[in-house]
Amino acid sequence: MFSDYPGRSSATHIPLISDMRSVRVTVALFWAVVAVVGFWASPDSRMTVAGPQFADAATGRVVKSLKRAMNQGWRNGAHSVCAILGCDYEQVKAHLAHHPASFHSFKAVCAQLDEFEEEITTSKQREEDLTPNQKEYRWLLLMKAAAVLNHCLGTKFSVPANFVPPHVKSNEYVPGQRGDGDEKEKLKSRMKALQVVVPLPTVDEIQNYASQRLASLRQTHMDQTKELEEARHRKFLLLQEEHDRQTEQMISELKLKQTEEMDTLRRELAEEKRLFDHSVKVWDAVSRLLTDAHLGIEALSERVHSMSQQVFKLSSFYDKLHSYQQASKENPTGNAAYSALSYAFQSEAAVEQAMQQIVATYQEASGAVARIQEILSQAEGVTATAPPRDDAPWFQQRQRGYKDRLDSFNNLLTDLSVRLEDLMQTAEERKLVILFSGDEVRTQTLALLQERTNDWSARLATLRERAQGIEVAASKFFESSAQLDRTTGEVVSAVLQNPDAFIVQVSTYATESGSLRSSANVIEEDLKNLIKALQEIGREMTGMTEGISAAQLPPAVLEFLGLPGLFNALNVDMQVKAKGQQMIQLIKARLNQTVEISRKLEMLKNEVKNIRSPAAREQAEWALSEVSTKLQDVLRAKAEVELEIQQINLQLQQAQATIAQLDQRMNHERLAAKRVAAGSSAAGGLRGNSLAFGGTVGGLGGSIDGLGTSAGSVMGLGSSVGGGLNADSRVTLVELEQQRQAAKEKLQELRQSLSTKQREAVSLENEARRLEAEVGTKQRELTEEQQRIVRTMTLAQSLTTGAAPTASMTMASLRGGLGMTGGLGGGSAALMSQGLMGSRATGMLGGSMGGLGGSMGGLGGNVGGLGGSMGGLGGNVGGLGGSMGGLGGNVGGLGGSRGGLGGLSRGGI
Question: Residue 545, class by beta-carbon neighbours within 10 Å (0-12 exposed, 13-18 middle, 19+ buried)?
Answer without folding.
Answer: middle
